[in-house]
Amino acid sequence: MTITPNKSTALYANEVGKIVLHDLPAPEPQEGEVLIKVLYSGVNLSDIRTLQFFGLRNYALGGEFCGRVLETPNLADTPFKAGDLIAGVVIGGINRASRHATHQEYISIPASWAFKVPENVPPSAAAGLGIVVIASAKRHEFLKQLGATQCFDYHDENVVDKFKTALRETKGTIWGFDAFGSVANPVSQDVLASVIPPHDKVRPATVLLSPHDGFEITMGGRNFDIDFDLPDGTRLFFPKDLEAADRMWRAVRWVLEHYGTENVPTPARVAEGSGKDAIQELYKMSEMGNFGKVLLKHPLK
């Protein structure tokens, strides 16, 4: 599959931070990298929130993908061959190279960031495996299919009391996950902490890089260093953790092997349309306006 792209159409924050459809130079694979034609990229809360929080400019967007491997001179040095369907999660950070950002037509990434997609998994699903679902009452039956034993309606005026009552009956560890990641109106970590009653074993976590006391940070990948300079001058550095990365890959492999059987696929919607439509999908996701995963189909136009 010999294709020599001359450009890569991408979702890009321009010189004033506005997201536009922009033609980047075609990526040039570095040593150990794989050139990929992106079929689908996954939309995430962090697409917009990272952009706004750090005030990023001249920055290509996107953190996960599924696509086809293209022929390159150094491909034999990787585990993949031309035509393979692969998916993965890429490094974040304000200094990320544009060729690694996934909301574009072509990317070039280290082979270790990707995995081969088996035939039983649709390409669009592979671009968004392992999501967390936040749902209203009408979705509770689906959540129970995933294994939830109790579901709560966040519109219920007594939901906090009901939540605390259920947690007080817990004899094991209380695991709390702040998947919203808001820093104001409301502060989501404070909201989560407020509904957890006193308990011997509590393990709360957040998607934010600035955890409150007692909270742990969650990250989408640990097979690379993660480096952030916060607006207040604080520098956050998380060295790669290959042991944690191996646990993540084992979980991904389990999902791939059991997709559609023991693993119940979570809802996913493929967005096909113009670049303007794709940009609207990013903003809708940032406002928590979706149920399940949203995938952008490439190329964007």
Furnish the topology, listing elements before pairings.
Layout: E1 7-13, E2 19-25, E3 33-42, H1 45-54, E4 59-60, E5 64-69, E6 85-89, E7 106-110, E8 114-116, H2 123-126, H3 140-145, H4 159-168, E9 174-178, H5 188-194, E10 202-206, E11 216-217, E12 226-229, E13 235-238, H6 242-257, E14 268-271, H7 275-286, E15 293-297
Could you give a quick summary of the protein structure above?
Residues 14-296 form the Enoyl reductase (ER) domain. With 301 residues, the chain is α+β, with helices and mostly antiparallel strands.
Structural commentary:
GO terms for molecular function: oxidoreductase activity, acting on NAD(P)H. Residues 14-296 form the Enoyl reductase (ER) domain. Pfam families: ADH_N (PF08240). It comes from Fusarium sarcochroum. Belongs to the zinc-containing alcohol dehydrogenase family. By secondary structure, the protein is an alpha+beta fold. Helix content is 22%, strand content 25%. It has seven helices and 15 strands. The strands form four sheets. Strands 3, 5, 6, 7, 8, 14 and 15 form a seven-stranded mixed β-sheet that branches. A three-stranded antiparallel β-sheet has the order 2-1-4. It has a three-stranded parallel β-sheet with strand order 9-10-11, with helices on one face. Helix 1 packs across helix 7. It is globular, with a radius of gyration of 20 Å. The model has no long low-confidence stretch (mean pLDDT 90).
